[in-house]
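### Sample
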Amino acid sequence: MAAIHQQQQHMPLLLLTFLLAASTAAARPSYVIKSTCVAITNATVGTPYRYCVRTLAADPAAAPARDARGLAIAAAKLTATNVSSTLHVLNLLVDALQNCIVTYQFMQGDVAGALDDLSAGRLDVASPKLKRASFQPDFCELAMMESDTDKDPVSEENDANQLLSGMAYNIAELIANRRPPPPR
């Protein structure tokens, strides 16, 4: 039960609002909601009518509103809750990205050391550094997964770095072990 509650905290508020609207038969928009949504849709380009009606009709604080002021208060409260949720997600992502920065700094050091070793002909010393580097993107990926945000802004970079560093390691290991490449 606690896991479900924790997952619900991370679910965006508006998604929950839409789910409530879909699951509640009594979530019928009032005249005030409909007329206010028509008015703002006609007066602005920023608020689609359907979005306005669905969001306000699903909000228990907006449904009984008697006028546009009551709807504005309800919409502002929804916004405040959504902003808080977004800030929470951003803080989790910042923490995860900080872990990724440290991980990639270690990787950068390993790759730079391996480059020096390869240039100097020390293949047996370069290979372990490249091997260590090839695992670093996984640690970043893990940090993103552990953030519980279901968002990963560096997924493509992690994939590319893992492939490149793995390839560099495999080539260095091939040379270090003096194995000839397999015939084609």
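The chain has a mean pLDDT of 85. This sample (Pectinesterase inhibitor domain-containing protein) is used throughout the tutorial notebook.
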